[in-house]
Amino acid sequence: MKKTVFAVVCGCFMLCAVSQGALMNASFEDPDLDPGVKVNGVTDWWDSASLYTKTVDDGDENTPLTPYGDNWAQLGRGRWIYQQIGTFTENTTYEITFLLGQPSDKAIAGFYVELFAGGNPALAADVNSKRQAANFPLTTVVGAVQIATTGDIDPGLTGMATQEMSVQLSTGDAGTGYAVGDALWLMFSRPDTPGKADIDNVAVSVVPEPATMILLGLGSLVALRSKRK
Ligand SMILES: [Ca+2]
Ligand SMILES: [Ca+2]
Prior knowledge:
Blueprint: H1 2-16, E1 38-40, E2 46-47, E3 53-57, E4 71-75, E5 80-87, E6 93-101, E7 112-117, H2 137-140, E8 145-149, E9 162-170, E10 183-189, E11 197-207, H3 210-228
Antiparallel strand pairs: 1-3, 2-5, 3-4, 4-11, 5-10, 6-9, 6-11, 7-8, 7-10
Helix pairs in contact: 1-3
Bound molecules: calcium ion (2 copies).
One calcium ion binds next to strand 11.
């Protein structure tokens, strides 16, 4: 009996460890900034290009320290960053983890994580627009469709506090405007209200389905049995 439990646990662990293709600039350390320096835009992410979408070194007096290098991405009012994280498959659940930081000079006041699918990746660009704007480029220019959102997950931090965040989003079935094999996009954004949020150390992994976990557990069991024969 003990061995059965052990085999199932092993099977799950192996699958949980499988992750989607590596994110680009997931810790926002590119570019290397001098202490306290802020620059507009976010490298390797498509961003809402403006002085409200920044890469910030944590030597800045209003910015919390990050344990992940020196830099944060910082989103102001209605601002966003996104990148392609792979291709769309149906009913796949992704776990997205990141560090959220509260600058001392403005409240986070709303924070969203979303998945989009479809569109033409060649049309993605840095564009000065808000997530809520009529010309929001990921949907109106690239042609992607929002398929999952966390809703507002602002944890209500104060001062220069930070919090490790973990959210799960599922892709669901294919729908109008996107199909299996189309681009899959991960976006972070803020609502159209005054505020600032710092974000760092983004990671994405696939959460195994219960059916897959059972199958894998059974597979391990069979392997164990045949070894013992
Ligand atoms: Ca960093
Ligand atoms: Ca960019």
